[in-house]
User: Fold this.
Amino acid sequence: MPIQRECTIMRAEKLNPFAWSLTLDAGELARAALPGQFIHVKCGDSRLLRRPISICDTDGNCLRMVFEVRGEGTAWLSRRHTDETLDVLGPLGHGFDLSGRKLLAVGGGIGVPPILNVVRHCKGEAHAILGFRSVDRAMLLDEFRAASSTVSVASDDGSIGTHGFVDALVREKLKGERDVAGVLACGPRPMLRAVAKAAAEAGVPCQVSMEERMGCGVGACLVCACKMADGAYRHVCKDGPVFRAEEVDWDE
Amino acid sequence: MNNAVDLSVTLAGVTLKNPIVVASGTFGFGREYGQFYDLAELGAICVKGLTVLRREGNPPPRIAETPMGILNSVGLQNPGVDAFLAHELPELRRHDVKIIANISGSTPEEYGDMCEKLSEAGVDMIEVNISCPNVKAGGLAYGTRPELAAEVTAIAKKHAAVPVMVKLSPNVTDITEIARAVEDAGADAVSLINTLLGMRIDVASHRPILRQNMGGLSGPAVLPVAVRMVWQVARAVKIPVLGMGGVMTGADAAELMLAGAAAVAVGTACFADPYAPVRVRDELARLASGQGISRVSELTGAVQPW
Ligand SMILES: Cc1cc2nc3c(=O)[nH]c(=O)nc-3n(C[C@H](O)[C@H](O)[C@H](O)COP(=O)(O)OP(=O)(O)OC[C@H]3O[C@@H](n4cnc5c(N)ncnc54)[C@H](O)[C@@H]3O)c2cc1C
Ligand SMILES: Cc1cc2nc3c(=O)[nH]c(=O)nc-3n(C[C@H](O)[C@H](O)[C@H](O)COP(=O)(O)O)c2cc1C
Ligand code: FES
Assistant:
């Protein structure tokens, strides 16, 4: 059940030249949050719509969000300081199904942070595969190393980890590790599509976290439509953001 | 404090416990916002626009932000009137709140069929949408031509056993002409405004943000247009007006009432603040009580134009 709350910023840090991390005192909102869910954040009075941001991690009443500056709203968020408050709605959506802890958690770019929460919930048994455009965009590596069974990194330009895309690492991992119960992925759509393909080839179930522009964030306005393989639209904020990969119409 | 103000109003003979309605398409069928507060707090719920058959709606992106507003191009995604009657109306009926069914047809006959079914099922009022800018058939076409608007209104009236309110489009040169046409055709009330046709372009990609290129503008940006049109229409017709467009606060609601609205709908505001309808109601009550008004309905049409 979602709640709306003014949350005090307990910690504000810059993780790299592009990404910021805010840790909020979110009370019961943090305690109710599940991996893969998101929050809908008001970004000042001059922007009408809230911005959807994934929950990166929770610890008791603390909720962490990590974001890149993409436009005015996220730029406003990046200027927030400790002890200021944010108007937050959440936790929203339905997250990852984490049955079977031996999971392969895959994040790309700003899709990396929400994967941390997944890995944490798997109590050290999950493998993490993280993709970045380049080394200056890498983030949260220490946190992932502390929480995962193994961590593999790829970058588009080879400046950190393997040169190439995460789906190649997913293929490799699924060949080596026979007992992976599922693949969970968050990142840009082309990456999700490639990871879903790699998982399907290995016969391993795959869940993906989708993005779409949102209005209400709670399922009332129907703007956040995502085309499904059966031709119907489902809604990222309420039915998602996590879908089973085979449900999604990747050609849309 | 607020107890002093009588908030009840009547709209086309239906008594609402307060003048705050939630606008069609912004509140689903009430389930989502019903998690935040008791739906009985509202004057009425206007449900998502219904069509005879299920509609999937338009491809995304369906929303673009604008300076103090939004564009949407949902395209009347809905489960169809029969699924609404089977699955949503019984659930809504568990709450002590008036239900207004919003309908869109692609022929006048479709409007008639839906009016019959919905009346039988006992909704409190029917809002005939002749102003959706996001669908090809019907929609806006009926709302911009007085003779077509009148034809749809007459058919709806013939088949409806409950009051019929016609929702007007602002995308016309003279809204009073359409308002008079639907009044003459028997409408019990009019509601306005639906969204204003608009467009935004991503300058980086040279692509419109909406997949449909154009969409409907709502939110605070449209409030002054709504106030103007409610004022014009309220002076042109005798039937009551449900005012909407950009209401964010109790003062905004009061503006629409002063301009002539008997009740006010809150829509886009819910996306910023899920509690908006309830907050607007309380702010309106405070505003009225601060002005020594005992019945909120006294505000309706009380503007003193120059
Ligand atoms: C479920 C979900 C989870 C997300 N999690 C994160 C996260 O953890 N970290 C992060 O950095 N980003 C995340 N995003 C993307 C983030 O919402 C956008 O980057 C942000 O909304 C951009 O806002 P802006 O004002 O800076 O950009 P502008 O381009 O100025 O925004 C204009 C409008 O478009 C919307 N919009 C623009 N890009 C996106 C997008 N990619 N997805 C959805 N709406 C968009 C904005 O919300 C706003 O309504 C997530 C998106 C979704 C749907
Ligand atoms: C996402 C969205 C969906 C809408 N869907 C409908 C609809 O199905 N039928 C209808 O008559 N109006 C629809 N509208 C218009 C609203 O009911 C209302 O007339 C308009 O948004 C102006 O009010 P507001 O500024 O308070 O939102 C929709 C508006 C929005 C923003
Ligand atoms: S954002 Fe409103 S339904 Fe998803």
Q: What stands out?
A: Helices of chain A lie at 27-32, 72-78, 112-121, 141-147, 166-176, 189-202. Chain A is about 20% helix and 35% strand. Residues 84 and 240 of chain A are 30 Å apart (CA to CA). The two ends of chain A are 31 Å apart (CA to CA).
